[in-house]
Amino acid sequence: MRTLIVGIGALGGIIGGRLLAAGSPVFLATRDAESAGRLRASGLRVTGIGGDASGSATHVAALADIGETFELIVLATKAQDAIEAAPRLGELLARGGTLLPIQNGGVSQILAERLGEERVLGGLSNLGGTMTALGAYEQRNAGHILIGELTGGTSERATRVQGWLGRGVDVRITPNLRGAIWSKLLLNCSVTTLGAVSGGTMRGYIFTPEGRALFDRAYDEALSVALASGARPEKMIVDPMPPGWNGHSVPGPAQDAWLSAVLAGYGDIKPSMLQDFERGRATEIDFINGYVADLGKKLGVATAANAAIVDAVHAISRGRLAPGPARLGEILTSAGG
Fold first, then answer.
1. pTM score, two decimals?
2. What does the radius of gyration of the chain's CA atoms come to, in whole angstroms?
3. Residue where one domain finishes, among candidates 158, 174, 190
4. What CATH number did the domain enclosing 267 receive?
5. Does one domain contain both 84 and 148?
6. Which of 208, 238, 204, 202 is nearest to 223 (CA)?
7. The domain containing residue 276 runs over which residues?
8. pLDDT tens-digit map of 216-234
């Protein structure tokens, strides 16, 4: 498949580097011409889990300078950049071509609404990695790319994309991609965002009264919106439905055991949003808790906690607040509980 990878950060770099090393020709799109020139000179090098791989970046250019069309466009940018690039990506898709967004949150659904579901194949990534320098990437887990139709079921195009990208990285298909996206979004809305605003990890806040209460509020609201939208979240590390859930989390030993499983899987991971705060970068909050709050309004589902979390993150990003444990109690108060 004639393929373009847009965004050559950690995720796009690992996918592109491993495909090039496997002998699969891919085109690379960067933010600007300077970055394209540096990649053309350095090539792509991947180290870490999965073994070393490298390839020459012969076909690389700034997104604005690309004049060809592609059967497959893998969109590996930040969520806000993905939405901004949508009109340009529509121009670069060949007739019958497929756009594969692999961001967190509601990006796949938003792009499908703008470009048409027949042009968008949903995706999300469980690959972990870092970009140590432009063109140099370290893969940190044995994760995979999960793809599927947003309308559900299986399809021939998903199988084709799996076969092609699978030459470089592990690609899996699910008939319930929307459910899988929501399962990850539920944890992003609670585990990782609250870690970011508190200035640490889930293990650092979940044993405080404010941390536990806000986790339950954020998770319960997000799950209520998911179910109201018709999605059925899939089991990942834990069952997305907490024990005895009846629209709200039910305190007790079963809930504590469920939360311990979440903590075991995610409790010590430093949130990427906290790293965004530290580096002065824009966060993806509008496509995580913000997506839940916006969709909740449309569906008539209350999302006061998620909306208050969004406000707090924006205030931190603008320098009006600093991350810290006190933020959790302030958000609870703002959300009316």
1. 0.86
2. 20
3. 174
4. 1.10.1040.10
5. yes
6. 238
7. 178-334
8. 999 999 999 999 999 999 8
